[in-house]
Amino acid sequence: MTKPKPKLPSERTPAAKIPMLRLATGREPFWRDIVPGVRVQFRPINVAAILLARTAAADVLRAGGEDAMVKAGVAFTSSLAHSGIVAWEGVGDADGNPVEPTKETIDAALELWPVFDAIDRLYVGPALIQDAEKNV
Q1: Nearest-5° angle of CA 45, CA 49, CA 51?
Q2: Cα separations in angstroms, 53 against 3, 8, 16, 69, 84
Q3: Which residues of 22-46 are buried (b: 16+ CB within 10 A; e: fewer)?
Q4: What does DSSP assign to residue 44?
Q5: Calpha distance 1→19 (Å, rounded)
Q6: What is the C-alpha to C-alpha distance for residues 117 and 112, in angstroms, rounded to an integer?
Q7: Residue 54, Cβ neighbours under 10 Å: how many?
Q8: Of 49, 55, 84, 111, which has fewest CB within 10 angstroms of its CB?
Q9: Per-domain residue ranges for the chain?
Q10: What is the chain's percent helix, strand, coil content, to nearest 5?
């Protein structure tokens, strides 16, 4: 019994029906409204940021303890927030004075559930779940 010959490119399914990896070459920072009155400018998530976030999560898992999985998820999102936040509007100190995004102010913002949740859903999540229309 002979093996069937591979199809020639002209005999294959038309390109319009085949899922395609779409490369985004213009990867400029973008703004997201995260909670009422607050918007954040993010860098697009790149491979290095994902690898750093994975390392942060793995460190938490290696340390173990109660809720290690939950804490690893927090470490992952926090790492991506730290590497991704470029600027923000509508964020201030206890006296209402605007503050710049720094390690300390980003950490303080991430301690607020609505902020953490919005960054996780609007920034981290879409980078991890890329469908055929928005895969890169």
Answers
A1: 130
A2: 47, 43, 35, 14, 11
A3: eeeeeeeeeebebbeebebbbbebe
A4: P
A5: 33
A6: 9
A7: 14
A8: 111
A9: 38-128
A10: 45, 15, 40
Which of 6-15, 63-72, 118-127 shows the lowest per-residue confidence on average (mean pLDDT)? 6-15
Task: Assess whether pLDDT exceeds 70 at residue 61.
Answer: yes
Question: Does the pLDDT value for residue 42 go beyond 70?
Answer: yes
Nearest residue to 112 (alpha-carbon basis) of 87, 84, 68, 78: 78
Question: For residue 87, what are the β-bridge partners?
Answer: 41
State both tokens at 128: 């991890």
| pLDDT (mean) for 60-83 | 96
Q: For residues 125-131, give the mean pLDDT.
A: 77
